[in-house]
Request: fold
Amino acid sequence: MSAAAAPAPAAPSATTRVEYLLRLADTSLVLAQRLGEWVGHAPAIEEDLGLANTALDLLGQSRMLLSYAGTLEGAGRDEDALAFLRSEHEFRNATLAEQPNGDFGDTVVRQFLIDAYQLEVFERLAASSDTRLAEIAAKSVKETRYHLRYSSSWLIRLGDGTPESHARVQASLDRLWPYTRELCDPDELDRAMADAGIGADLHAVRESWLKRVDGTLAEATLRRPADGPYRWYGKQGRHSEHLGHLLAVMQHLPRSNPGAQW
Amino acid sequence: MSVAGLVASGTGDALARARQAIATVADPEIPVLQLVDLGIIRSVELDTAGTLHVGVSPTYSGCPATSVISADIEAALRAAGFSSVNVHDVLSPPWTSDWISDEGRRKLHAYGIAPPPKAVASVRGLLAAESKPACPLCGSTDTELLSEFGSTPCKALHRCRSCLEPFDRFKCI
Reply:
């Protein structure tokens, strides 16, 4: 189809837009919940604070995105209903975000890969034709840049550290790398949103994300694993076995005490 | 933001009273600092129905103080005689530490928190943000970063190598 002759793409439906917002919101929410699991367990007090503060920012971002999704949906669901009363298959987070914390190296690798990705996505969304989404993204960019500085510095320290830390963090990278496949692999919904000028163009995201990842991996003396087969697509609701357990903990209180007020 | 039916004249006194009331509200986590010093009060407007609208910019998306700040503003305005108050978020343009006033910077320093350098929103400012802050206790510039994250979402933790005291620094965003 020639670009010149193609009719302007139809504006995405509210359902499509809500679905897209949930992908962004759920990735931040699920990652925040994982990082929260470190509180009181991190290797040092500074890391405890760092991971908890990052979790807070992510939670704040997801609250704004979920509230907006609820408004667009118009079904009377607020941020709490969306966070606490949806089931596993209704979550749209990237599968990488739900992977267990593992050791500190696993957490650093997961954080670095997602921080670098979110930075590219939010930078583009700050210019979205959806002004509310653009506002939320512009706010999040600043925080994400800060998160990336933290996770990059740890990735470099561990990778370019002792033989033990290098071997372990390389193993973390090998284990988690396959999950990055879905981040920059646009499906129909991603494409429709990008074409409408609302969503981020994931091909462009992939290019600059890979460049940044390669740069930091080189500094960390780590090797980028080859892309392999991949079966989960959390952003379409096809999750790994870990999300259900995470939600059981996260949603326990509001599920067992419907309507409970703090 | 758009509030229908803003009144430009005849409400000057009420607005001045409202601003005065808001100026007394302190940051819940850094109580020496007023919210106006922090630069997060973005608009104060009165509509024709007599409702006062206050726009507030969050410093960090997840800052737990945000809801306390809204409640404190509302309480101060009620105490000043405003019965109908609406506090709302203003996300755009996003808050930057550049908006902390000179008075705010002075208060932070006196409280033992190193203020952020100015103009971090520019490239030159970002470079300055990477530089070492002076110790707010002894003034030495021989300081080191202990942790990018500190006791609240808006602060990082540093240590002075001269007087050996740890101190907070306002994050530069």
Notes: Chain B has a mean pLDDT of 86. DSSP finds five helices and seven strands in chain B. The CA atoms of residues 75 and 85 of chain B lie 9 Å apart.
